[in-house]
Amino acid sequence: MSTKEKIVLEYPLKATSLDVIWTAISTPSGLEHWFADKVIDNGKNITFIWGKDDSRDAMIATFRQGVFIRFKWLDIDDKKEYFEFRINYNELTLEYILIITDFAEHDDLDDTESLWNSQVETLCRENGL
Hints:
- The protein has a single domain (5-127), classed as Alpha-D-Glucose-1,6-Bisphosphate, Chain A, domain 4.
- The protein is built from three helices and seven strands; from the N terminus they run E-H-H-E-E-E-E-E-E-H.
- The protein has helices at 18-26, 28-31, 109-127, and strands at 5-13, 38-42, 45-50, 54-64, 68-73, 83-90, 95-104.
- A seven-stranded antiparallel sheet has the order 1-7-6-5-4-3-2.
- It is an alpha+beta fold.
């Protein structure tokens, strides 16, 4: 049984196009601009590579075009664990919101949130969001 806790982070984006966001969170070329140094699509499985020696494999567990994509790390046994990128549109503020769901050990919650904050900052800078 996992001791990890679910975290959900929300980031308002300055995007005028859903397509820009969707491409950034769901395609290898988009993910390479902010999430990993290299992303290799092997059909349903994806290899994320950071630096020269760090890589992890994930599968696309489920997705809905233009709404969300959920990945499951292949080296994690807990079937309830995943990480997900979801796009919501706030009609009041006319903003897209990127919602990231992830899991982390209790002692690592702050570090995990800081890492996502940094990654999303890169996402916004690289994509003009």
